[in-house]
Structure formats: C-alpha cells, structure tokens
Amino acid sequence: MDAALTHTVNEALDDGNERLAQLVEERREQLEVIRQQPPTALTMPAAPLVGEQPPDPLEEAIEALIIAADEDEIAQVLMDYPDLLTDAADAALAQLADEARAQDDAELATYATECRAMLRTVREGLNT
Q: pTM of the full predicted structure?
C-alpha cells in the first residue's frame, strides 16, 4: 500500500498537482503511524481526545473525492459516500473553492468547482 501511495504522489507531482500529492502523502503518513501502533491500539475503537471533534463524514467524503485519481475511483467514492449528492456537499464544495481562492490555491479552487459541477450533473441524471 505504501508503494502504491508513493507512486500516486509521484504521478500527481509529475502532473503538477501538488494539492493531490500533499493529500495522498498525508494519508500515507497516517497509515505509517497506524502501522507502528501496538496491535491492541488497532483493535480498540478510537475515542476522541477531550475537546476533539469527531471526524465530519461530509468532510471525509469531500476529501476522498478530491484525491480520487480517475473516473473509477470517483465512481467508487460516490458509492461509498452518497452524501456527496446532497445540497450540503454542494455548499461544502463551494466553501472549499472559496477558501482555496482566498489562499491563492487556484488549482484546488478550480478542481472543487469542477467536482461540484460533476456532482450536480450526477444528481440531475439520477433525478430524471
């Protein structure tokens, strides 16, 4: 898995997609941390730290969509995260695009807008 993720990071960098490379690299590092934990820590449910918010499922879904490398992966993400086809996801992607623009990340802003348009097309297709 580590080699596959490293390969994806390298491909993203070769394509000039630094944001995707960064997101995949963060996931690869998280997997490495998990691998280094004792087996008992892996089998016990993770309790949030005091004051820590549980992960937002919609945020997780959007991140999975953003790092999907091709149409097959996008299709799988849509199957895994049907909440991406909601108004809440549409609004969250619009917010992500706005935040990316504010941070001068034109590439992420454009991709978030493209994802938003694609999801709208999927929603329209499902509603017909």
A: 0.60
Q: Per the structure block, which two tokens stand in for 113? A: 């807008």
Q: Closest Cα partner for 112 from 14, 28, 19?
A: 19
Cα–Cα dist 89/57, whole Å:
10
| Confidence band, pLDDT 50/70/90 cuts, at residue 26 | confident
Burial per residue of 32-57, b for 16 or more beta-carbon CB atoms within 10 angstroms, e otherwise = eeeeeeeeeeeeeeeeeeeeeeeeee
Q: Where are the domains of the chain?
A: 1-49, 55-128
Q: With CA atoms as reference, report the closest residue to 118 among 60, 71, 80.
A: 71
Could you give the CA distance from residue 104 to residue 107 in angstroms, rounded to a whole number? 9
- Quote the DSSP letter at residue 1: -
How much is the average pLDDT of 83-106? 92
**Token pair of 79 as six digits:** 């199957």
